[in-house]
Amino acid sequence: MSPVTGTVSAERAGRRVEEILDRLAAGGDRQACTAAEELVRVLMDFYGAALARTVELLGRPADDASAQGHTPAPLTGLLGDELVSSLLVLHDLHPEDVPTRIARALRGVRHALESAGYDEATGVLRLRLTGSTGCGCPTTQEVARQAAVEALACFAPEVTAVELEPVTSEPALLQIGAGPPGGGSAAGRAPATAR
């Protein structure tokens, strides 16, 4: 359970349902297992229909919002919530497309990452680091990749793999100045003068 909202995560809830159904199947009572699976389907249909209706109602723009083409504020808040967003995706009700949801997930990652391309056919998302990763070592880069994987699980589960583009080292910055401080030459002599 989340200490902030008192709700379970979608991933843990899904795992728990699978565990319970697996225990029922292992018990050998095929009728009980079939009834439990049907119960899960009925409940999913029920709350899925309720979610669809909620999105429809919240998605109706107020008169001033529709004139400007903006998404109403209540819907924006729901789409940014990990639990609500994951349920909307689960029921194919999320109004945002996959690239928009990927961008939303990446904004929540503390590492500076950007999408370098998403292949819908394979589910592979390529990412590029856009900021400093500290030492630039592979461990730090893997931490950034894993943070993206975790954020994408709720907002864009269509992403099945995350690849991080190799970090290219930039050339060292060479500082060129007018001369050493104090007006002297590099060897401590006075500058040469023409005779």
Name the average pLDDT: 78
Distance separating the two termini: 85 Å
Q: Tell me about the largest β-sheet.
A: 3 strands, mixed
Which percent band covers the strand fraction? 5-15%
Number of strands: 3
The percent of residues in helical segments reads 40-55%
Report strand order across the widest sheet.
Answer: 1-2-3
Radius of gyration: 27 Å
H/E element sequence:
HHHHHHEEHE
Count of alpha/pi helices: 7
List low-pLDDT spans.
Answer: 1-5
Shape: elongated
**Helix/strand/pairing category:** mainly alpha
Write the layout of secondary structure elements.
Elements: H1 10-26, H2 30-59, H3 63-68, H4 73-79, H5 82-90, H6 98-107, E1 113-119, E2 124-129, H7 138-155, E3 161-164
Parallel strand pairs: 2-3
Antiparallel strand pairs: 1-2
Helix pairs in contact: 1-2, 6-7
Structure in words:
- The protein has 195 residues and is mainly α.
- The protein has helices at 10-26, 30-59, 63-68, 73-79, 82-90, 98-107, 138-155, and strands spanning 113-119, 124-129, 161-164.
- It has a three-stranded mixed beta sheet, covered by helices on one side.
- A hairpin with a 4-residue loop joins strand 1 and strand 2.
- Helix 6 (98-107) packs across helix 7.
- The termini are far apart.
